[in-house]
Amino acid sequence: MTEHMPEMEETSQPEAIETPQETAQQATVATSLDATHAIGVLVSQMEQVIRGKRSQIEMVVTCLLAGGHILMEDNPGTGKTVLARTLAQCISGGHGEEHVLFKRIQFTPDLLPMDLIGTHIFDDRTKEFVFKKGPLFCNVLLADEINRASPKVQSALLEAMAEHQITVGDATLMLEQMFFTIATQNPIEMEGTYPLPAAQLDRFFMKIYFGYVDEETELNIYREYLDIARNLVDLKQVLSLQDILELQAQAGSVHVHDEIVRAVSNIVRQTRVHPDISLGASTRSGIAFLKCLRAYALVKGRTFVIEDDVRDITRAVLEHRLIFRNKDGKQKALDSIILKETERLAKLKLF
Length: 351
Known about the structure:
There is one protein chain. By secondary structure, this protein is an alpha/beta fold. The chain folds into 2 domains: 1-6 and 47-250, Rossmann fold (3-Layer(aba) Sandwich); 254-351, Helicase, Ruva Protein, domain 3 (Orthogonal Bundle), CATH 1.10.8.80. The protein contains 12 helices and 14 strands. It has helices at 21-47, 54-65, 80-89, 113-117, 151-163, 198-201, 215-234, 241-252, 258-273, 283-299, 307-318, 327-348; strands at residues 2-5, 70-73, 91-92, 102-106, 118-123, 128-133, 140-144, 165-168, 171-174, 180-185, 206-209, 239-240, 277-279, 323-324. The strands form 5 sheets. Strands 1-4-7-10-2-11 form a 6-stranded mixed β-sheet. A two-stranded parallel ribbon has the order 3-12. A hairpin with a 2-residue loop joins strand 8 and strand 9 (171-174). 38% of the residues are buried.
């Protein structure tokens, strides 16, 4: 069942240049002032509905600007679905649409691939079969409780997420230029669920955990829940679809120092040889890592990536792509790899 509401290719990386911190900061003001303002307005607007979750909102925006997709895992009722709707509500669509095209799919065991992709139906007027597009043809897709659908349905998302296209018979149909999937899954129920395979998980640039808000924020939500509900209905469109595409282009041109590229490579390669990790990260993971680093730096108001960015997003980008040998290894293995590389970068004093 669907609900309707009203990537840009990464630009070539600039040649690595040793830039003093003062010069880099001046460049940020000169070239990213509009981007910083636009992203700040978007995040602030979303916070009118999603309270106490600024870091999670920033991660979602980071993934959007990196041209990827995001998986959110947490208990029911923490605001995952509302966040996806809020994001779509804040972006105005093209061709006179009030909002970008938002679709919600409730994944269930009886869902079929055609429920996502679409199907050919017979037109009585033309006496021909015509293709009726499914909900994947949208700008922001909420795949709610994705692990409740069968692997056959889950795999229907693979081509769409990886290549922004859908193959129907002998025809290949392109998706919208901005196609962003927000998938959610519930970790506490195992019956009637189908864990996402590694190939599917690898299509998600990031995986985040939503979590509960702190006590004071939760009290304020209880006091103001009627106002929050009205805020969702009355949200203003603070950015346009074209603005998002422009921000994606700007994210692709954020400067990454060669030593940070080396750190990404080292982290990825160390996951393949760590004794507590049975399946390490792929080269595709490293490329997604760099795209997310660039986008995260832009979200933080910079045109260059710093060491702290590596520490902040490594777990969100890599953890779901790895298979750990045991629970203890999952808690400590990646942290030890991150610590080793961030300490190496700190000694270099790049900025």
